[in-house]
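Reminder: ligand-aware prediction takes two inputs, not one.
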Amino acid sequence: MNDSFLHKGQRQRLVEELRTKGIHHAPVLHAIGNVPRHLFFTDTILQSHAYDDKAFPIDAGQTISQPYTVAFQTQLLNIQAKDKVLEIGTGSGYQAAVLCTLGTRVYSIERQKQLYFKTKQLLRSLNFFVETFLGDGYKGLPQFAPFDKIIITAAAPYIPRPLLEQLAIGGILVVPIGEGAQQKMLKIVKISENEFEQSEHGTFSFVPMLGGIAE
Ligand code: SAH
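Here is what comes back for the chain with S-adenosyl-L-homocysteine:
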């Protein structure tokens, strides 16, 4: 399966749709317009819906996030080229590919073993240079800290302290918080070693952030 003119046209329509839904950051829209989302689908029937603004199931009971959600979280991160970004929940690899397209250095953690191996291979084959890790996102990656930006792409019951510690001063963490069907999108800015500024940005629906590594 490759990237055709049909796919490119569908992506441009998706970009326009996201613009009308309030995504205005040009580099984010440009990235969405360039990442071939259909190649991140494992189910070939669902693949024909890759440019619908919807979340879809992937392997291991997980989901590929809705394009609007990916664009929204990325916009909140206020990405600058060369930012060092930590993503929790590699999943399909789509969000990581969008971040990569924005010129960032991406470190991404996945706890599902099968998904980790599959996505690592997929990202490499599509030439997205993402550092992927099998591990528990609650712990982050202290050996690579500090990160300019941290994005959690699963519903977290609380903000994991190690991630706040691994955020650079002036850095931004974006996380959906809540244990029910819907979560609040929070943006946390690290003002100093012990001071954080928090703002709320609407409700979203993610799969839960779980602990440990799963076979
Ligand atoms: N960013 C992904 C979204 C995938 S859904 C994409 O663009 O497709 C969320 C992912 O988070 C799932 O793959 C799930 O296995 C993973 N996850 C949940 N808890 C985690 C944790 N503690 N550490 C790492 N990954 C986690």
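The chain has a mean pLDDT of 96. The pocket of S-adenosyl-L-homocysteine is lined by residues 62-65, 88-89, 91-92, 94-95, 109-112, 115, 136-138, 153-154, 207, 209-211 (CB under 6 Å). We will return to this case in the review session.
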